[in-house]
Amino acid sequence: MNILVLAGGYSPERNVSLSSGAMIAGALRAKGHQVALIDSYIGVDDAEADLQQLFHKEICEDWKAISTAVPDLKALKAAHPECRNRLVGSNVLRLAREADVVFLALHGGSGEDGRIQAALDLMGVHYTGSDYLGSGIAMDKHVTKILAKEAGVAVPEWEIREITGDEAIASAMEEVQLPIVVKVPDGGSSIGVYIVKTIEELRAALEQNIGRRLIFEQYIDGREIQMGFLEGKALPSIEIIVNKEFYNYENKYQKGLAFEQTPASILPSQEKEMGEMLLRVADALSLRTYARADFIIDGNGKIWFIEINTLPGMTPTSLLPQEAEAAGVSFGDLCEIIIEEAIKRKRGTENEDGD
User: Fold this and answer.
1) Strand ranges (DSSP E) for 173-315?
2) Which run of H or of E encompasses 7?
3) Alpha-carbon distance 160 to 209, whole Å?
4) Could you count the other beta carbons within 10 Å of the beta carbon of residue 355?
5) Which of 35, 179, 277, 291 is the most exposed place for a label (fewest CB within 10 A)?
6) CA angle at residue 306 from 302 to 311, to 5 degrees?
7) Nearest residue to 247 (alpha-carbon basis) of 161, 309, 338
8) CA distance linking residue 150 with residue 98, whole number of Å
9) pLDDT value at residue 8
10) Torsion over CA: 252, 257, 261, 266 (sign)
11) What residues have CB less than 8 Å from 62, skipping those under 6 apart?
12) Distances (CA, A) of 62 to 27, 83, 108, 315
């Protein structure tokens, strides 16, 4: 099968995405597929834009490692002035049209918010994961919380505030009750998340986000548990125990900074309840194939849904592959299952057209 893996992109999570893409491409090639891997933001020039040639291009080893630093997007744009006014690079969409299916290894930004999915839909290109609507909804944490709550899932109390300037900062500092979680509504990999326990920390978080809309979320002290689903079934849970701070960008992707246990050491009844909550959220958001959600279990044993990720990481330290492994699904098989789901949808569409 001819597969194009899209990774990178113009997003603070591009380094994570490049690692995911490299791992996915390697696994699918080992399964016998013809696989091309490209950075969706930079694309490829006309001389390289041959799909058959890209199938044999060596996977960049540098892409597999993830730096502790968040990518400098301004520097990326400056280094590639030809990409300055666009989010999809040269020949990306043409190559996508030529492939049997596109594996989306993109995280955040235009890769996970439904825009690339919508573009591929318009061209009749089949791709992995949720469609443009589910992706767009899930990317907005505010809307996700509304739908999850309506689905009967427990979510921490929250409010949205526009941080327009000094007056908005002063108002928030006077009215917000600490401790609290402050986060951007469309971030990922814990970028733009602040666990605020002091007034000084609150001021710093707000001053870094002037001009932005922020979520102020009730702080739940408890165990961080995550759970994914695959083909409509919940995977084993995984517990995150960090050595310092919270499960932030650095702790997520650098070995040794967080301990992860799967299945999590929670009660069977909690495992079952969490799986049911996850699938209710996925259904409410119209998600498909796979995703991974964040939960917290508080000191009283209550389970709280925090957010959901429609294109979870597929890196060496990522959680969904660990959960799948605990369910007896190897990394290569996980990638194969995700591809097979996209192909099933493609065949279904072709059959409908034939009718």
Assistant:
1) 180-183, 193-196, 212-218, 222-230, 233-234, 238-242, 258-261, 290-298, 303-309
2) strand 2-7
3) 13
4) 5
5) 179
6) 135
7) 309
8) 41
9) 93
10) negative
11) none
12) 17, 22, 21, 13
Identify the H or E element spanning 162. strand 158-163
Question: Mean pLDDT of residues grouped by 10 in the chain (355 residues)?
Answer: 94 90 96 96 91 93 81 87 85 95 90 93 95 94 97 97 92 93 75 87 91 94 96 96 57 60 96 98 97 97 96 88 96 96 81 57
The structure tokens listed for 92 are 């990306």
∠ CA 9-15-18, rounded to 5°: 65
Predicted local distance difference test score (pLDDT) of residue 98: 96
The residue whose two tokens read 């290109």 is: 125
pTM over 0.85: yes
Q: Which two structure tokens, joined as six digits, stand for 153?
A: 């899932």
**Residue pointed to by tokens 């696989």:** 35
| Cα distance between residue 1 and residue 15, in whole Å | 27
Tell me 60's DSSP state. Answer: P
